[in-house]
Amino acid sequence: MNKVLFVHAKGGPPLGYALSRVAATSAVHLLALSALPPTVAASAGRLCASVLVSVESERRDLVSLIVARAQAVGADAVVTFSEYAVVAVAQACEKLGLAGAGSSCALARDKRMMRRTWQEHGISQPRFRPVASEQDLHDAAAVLPFPLLLKAAWSAGSTAHQIIRSPQEVRTAWERSREVMAESAQLGYAELHVADAGADFLVEQIVAGSAGDWFDQPGWGDYVSVEGVVIDGDFRPVCLSGRMPTVEPFTERAGITPAALPHDAQERVVALAREAVDALGLANCGTHTEIKLGADGRMWVIETAARFGGAMTVPQIEEVFGLDLIGMLVDHLLGRPVSWPALARTPQEARGAAGSLVVLAVDGAGDAWPGRRIWDFPTVTEAIPVSDGSRLSVVAENSLPDGAVVPVYDPAAGANTMAALCLLSAVDPQIVIRDFRTLVDALPHVLPAASPEEARS
Question: Which range of residues forms the domain containing residue 152?
Answer without folding.
Answer: 127-205
